[in-house]
Input
Amino acid sequence: MRLTLLGTGSASGMPVYGCECDDCRLVRAEPRLRRSPCSALLEIGDRRYLIDAGQTNLAELFPAGSLTAIFLTHFHPDHVQGLFHLRWGRGLTIPVYCPPDSNGCADLYKHPGILAFDPQRKFQKLWLEDLGVTPLPLIHSKPTFGYLFEHAESSLAYLTDTDGLPPDTLDCLRDHGLDLMVIDSSYVPGSGHRGHNDLDTALALDEAIAPGKTVLTHIGHDLDVWLRAHADRLPSRVVVGRDGAVFSFPE
Ligand SMILES: [Zn+2]
Ligand SMILES: [Zn+2]
Ligand SMILES: [Zn+2]
Output
């Protein structure tokens, strides 16, 4: 099982359009520091599962036939905007596993094109060949699922967008002995509850769940600035996510 972070940014991304702060200037000059819409690719052998579809060049990234399925965490634009182009493809159908959200986003349900939306139920494990996938409810302004992926002896959880975790999701993850946890960490410490974890909340969840490794994602502008000044304050098993970072299991 191999996870590649395609994007690690919040909805505004990094650099922020029009922002002339030192960090945005630095990121404009160093493309490796950019943060694009939060999403990931899970690969098992030749199967490729996209987790969230906020990248707007999906058709270029994934030629027809190269995507096995898509998992959506929720229907906010920064997680689905790439589907508005992809849906008009021809000659194939792509399963899209998603939370049960009757509103979806804009007219995606009305005109799904090649996308076969398949709402899942919380804690109901789905088997895709030898990959077990458990949808985990998160705490956000729309119905949102994190996903627990299990393959062979390895397990990883992808948890965004969320502000804390519901007790039953926390229990499920704590019992699991995760190899990797990718988690929403949008805001600087002390930001309080604004629909996403601030760093304090993300680190408290890391401590409660104790995975092998925790990777921060959905990182907002101000936290990115903060992290550049305080990177040494993170516990050793916590790493700051970067676009393009790859994690393989078994390692
Ligand atoms: Zn800036
Ligand atoms: Zn969201
Ligand atoms: Zn988001």
Summary: The CA atoms of residues 74 and 144 lie 5 Å apart.
